[in-house]
Structures are given as C-alpha cells and as structure tokens.
Amino acid sequence: MKRIVLGYDDTESAKRALKRTCELAKALEGYVVVVSVAPVLVPAGHGIGPVDPADPPELHREELLHAKAVLDEDMIAADYVVGLGDPADLIVETAEQHRADLIVVGTSEPGLIARLLGLSVSETVQRRAHCDVLIVR
Fold it and tell me: 26-72: per-residue pLDDT in tens?
C-alpha cells in the first residue's frame, strides 16, 4: 500500500482524513496524491457560469496549500491536483490514473435527502472506487 489518494476540501472531516493519511503514509513509506475539486454548476440562466463563485478552483488551490504545509511538515512526498467537475468522479479517476492502493476521504453525516440524491462524496467514492477506501469521520 504505497500510493494513497486523499480527497481534500479543508473541512474538519477532511483535516482528520489528512491527519490519518499522514499517519499511513509515514508508516508505509507511501506517496500521497491530494485532490481538491471545484464542483460544476448546472447553468440556470444568464450570467451563471459553470463554476460556483463561492467555491472556485482558486479556493481549492488554497486548500491544497494547507494540505501541502501539513505533508511537508511530516516530510511526506506528494502531488497536488485541482479538479473541476464532480468531486467523487474526479477522486476516483485520479486514483485510477495514479494506480492508488487506497483512497482516503473525510465524511460528515449527510442528511436523508443528500443520501437519497447521492450527494455524499464519500459514499459515491466508496461505490465506484477500484481500490480500498478509508472513510474518516
């Protein structure tokens, strides 16, 4: 288990997932790929672009800098990927591209409606991943 993909968005659960990823990478002498994804909006009218102005790719670049500081402090080798699209899809695609042995994602308890609509990134990653998935609460 040498290659770990971490889905990261600077939430508290993602910070716990980052901590767990650091522990695993150090213990296994692993390599980490951190992915942060800006979701795409469905256009609803004039003036609305494909990216949520409250959640742009620039914000995700900043989030990756936070993760980089933690990984650098622990001297863990890592790559950083900013994506644009469906977060679960891009986390799984990145894991496939990097032939990851493990995907680590944080989770908070989604509400019933979010679960019914399939809005839980961690649950979607778990269903679609080709490798093991660690969901950190």
Answer: 999 999 999 999 988 765 555 555 788 888 999 999 999 999 999 99
| pLDDT in the model for residue 40 | 83
CA distance 9 to 66: 10
Phi, psi for residue 45 in degrees, rounded to 5: 165, -175
Q: Give the 3-state secondary structure of the chain.
A: CCEEEEECCCCHHHHHHHHHHHHHHHHHCCEEEEEEEECECCCCCCCCCCECCCCCHHHHHHHHHHHHHHHHHCCCCEEEEEEECCHHHHHHHHHHHCCCCEEEEECCCCCHHHHHCCCCHHHHHHHHCCCEEEEEC
Q: Tell me the residue type at 28.
A: L
